[in-house]
Amino acid sequence: MEKSTIICRCEEITYEEIEEVISHGARTFDDIKRLTRCGMGPCQTKICMHLVNKVIHELTGLPFQDIPLPRLRMPLSPIKLETLATNSTSFYAVKSVLDELELEERR
Amino acid sequence: METEVLVIGAGPAGLAAAFETASRGLDVTIVDESTVKGGQLCQQTQIIRALPSIFQPMRGFELAKLLTNQLEDFSVRYLLKHRLIGLYRDGSVGITNEVDVFPIKFKKLVIATGAAENAIPFPKWTLPGIITIGAAQTLINRDFVIPGKNSVIVGSSDFAMDVALQLLDVGVNVKAIIEAQSDVLARDKEKVKRVKKSGISFYLNSSIVEARGKDEVSEIDIQLPNKRITEKVDLVCVDGGRSPILDAFYQLGCSFGYQGELGGWIPQYNEFFQTDREDVFLAGNAAGVSSQGAVIVTGMIAGVSVCESLRIIDNREAEKIRISLWRELENIESSLYPDVWQARINHIKSFKYPLLKNQFIL
Amino acid sequence: MHIKNHPILGSCLQEPVTFYFNDQPYTAYKQQTVAAALIANGIRMFGLSRKLVQPRGMFCARGRCCSCYMTVNGEDHVRTCMIKVEEGMRVYPNLEDPEIRGD
After folding, report:
1. To bridge B13 with a disulfide, which of A29, B146, B295, C19 should be the other Cys (CB 3.0-4.6 Å)?
2. Is residue B253 part of a domain?
């Protein structure tokens, strides 16, 4: 693949950068993510995961079943902090994400 | 909010699962981030023939309407423009309507989130005007917008053939279909013939070398086996295949296996379309990328299995219905895609041996 | 260009709306997404990428790739392929990171 081809659209990581970290020992998506920021943009690996796994497969010969999925956290898609921290009292079932935290007592 | 059966995804599989459960008296809630019911079927204008025997061949959007209408007699709670955002600590799912986030407690969960398209990278593929073929179909059949004047399609799956014909229908000039393999990937040979007859060039063993343009794509270089050509296009539709959407399964702590023919990584599930979490079922393209008729049957199997696990129908009756549904699934899937069918059988056989576990980070 | 008469789906564009991109008025129809409305009016560059400052527009139309981010009615980083266009909507391109201080 042409070296300047962008693999991660969000963080604009090129094939060349991924090839370099693989030559330094990166073998999984998460390895590459931590070294290049690939997958840390707004889409959170939704678009680049498939592409990066293909690059790992091509450059290392690892079969796809040996290239694990990246690990993900909530939220599953972009959401406003305003929505997560909602404190609406008009909707009885609303449960703010802040309620999930055990906030420390301030002395 | 509490419900007995929570269905994530109002596409054909989700609607089929909702029908099997709601028609037997269960309290069903369906969540979908779209404003309409029917998922991708709503924007499909081609005639679909390989369907479960209870359906006649019909166009995608007609099938979407039928699947929606058959739920009219039952009190199903629809949460459209809502999406799954995560899990609360007590196990209820977090749903948002963009204004609030709230929990939904469920007895059984059916995840039918579908599949997402894969990209095909080449230099400057990030230019405006380069979109997925699903996006092209969305623009013409859902938003009623011409996506461009002169286009090429990269990839040659059955879906690409459908979209090629649909682009021609609305007057978009499709100059060529560019396929990297040595043969067209589409299995429906009649459809390929129709596309060839329309005058679209087929460039096999070919790929895009580079796209160029100032603020949007205006031309591309294509490498053919024995020469390189330049085409002036303002629209490039990429078809890199589809992969199941796994986001929800991550959060629920499900384990995964790999089946290339089904789209890559898929959640582990058994012949009941139940994941390795006893209360989480799945259906549709999320269980492996397949044709529209097949995903409807997977929704039916999941729905019946949910009814069985909630003791609405007994094991003997559920098994009887399941056996006939699995036969339908085999019929529909193995006619054009025997490798997909075989991969599904292998996946179910290896249910107890996941390749990936413990993906969820607390 | 809007498809006023679709060969299979018919004439489905019923209610026109006027929206503004960079303060210029454009016509669209109620059920279209903001991204589709812009594309119909020949506007395909929705913003610039953060690092290499390259033109970006809609890619997946499913709300997954976030390439269609724009500022809509004062709210930044809106996935324009997911929201419907409304009368009087004010849309601006996503040219750089938004200013989050102040106000």
Report:
1. B295
2. yes
- Of A79, C42, A49, A38, whose CA–CA distance to B149 is shortest? C42
- Whether A68 has its CB under 8 Å from any CB of chain B: the answer is yes
Contacts of C59 in chain B (CB under 8 A): 119, 126, 130-132, 135
Q: Which residues of C touch A43 (CB under 8 A)?
A: 64-66
CB pairs under 8 A between A and B: 97
Looking at the complex, does the CB of residue A35 fall below 8 Å from at least one CB of chain C?
no
Kindly tell me the burial class for residue A85, based on how many C-beta atoms sit within 10 Å of its own C-beta (0-12, 13-18, 19 or more).
exposed
Among candidates B96, B210, B248 on the partner chain, residue whose Cβ is nearest the Cβ of A83: B96
pLDDT in tens, C33-75: 999 999 999 999 999 999 999 999 999 999 999 999 999 999 9
Provide the CA B238 distance to its chain's centre, in angstroms: 16
Test the C interface: residue of B35, B132, B143 with most C CBs within 10 Å: B143
Question: Which residues in chain B are closer than 8 Å to A6, comparing Cβ atoms?
Answer: 121, 125-126
* Secondary structure of B302-344 in HEC code, one letter for each residue: HHHHHHHHCCCCCHHHHHHHHHHHHHHHHHHHHHHCHHHHHHH
Considering only the beta carbons, identify the residue of C63, C67, C77 that sits closest to A9. Answer: C67
Is the domain of B161 the same as that of B259?
A: no
Show residues of chain C in contact with B45, CB under 8 Å: 8-9
ipTM strictly over 0.90?
Answer: yes
pTM: 0.94
Q: What is the pLDDT of residues B286-312, one digit of tens each?
A: 999 999 999 999 999 999 999 999 999
CA distances from A51 to A6, A8, A10, B216 (A): 10, 8, 13, 23
Write out chain A's pLDDT in tens, 107 residues. Answer: 999 999 999 999 999 999 999 999 999 999 999 999 999 999 999 999 999 999 999 999 999 999 999 988 899 999 998 898 876 655 555 566 666 666 665 54
Do B246 and B111 fall into the same domain? yes
Q: Are residues B18 and B50 in the same domain?
A: yes
Domain that holds residue B164: 130-238
Count contacts between B and C (CB, < 8 Å): 98
Per CB-CB distance under 8 Å, the chain C contacts of B84 are none
Q: Which CATH code, of 3.90.1150.10, 3.10.20.440, 1.10.1660.10, 3.10.560.10, is assigned to C19-93?
A: 3.10.20.440
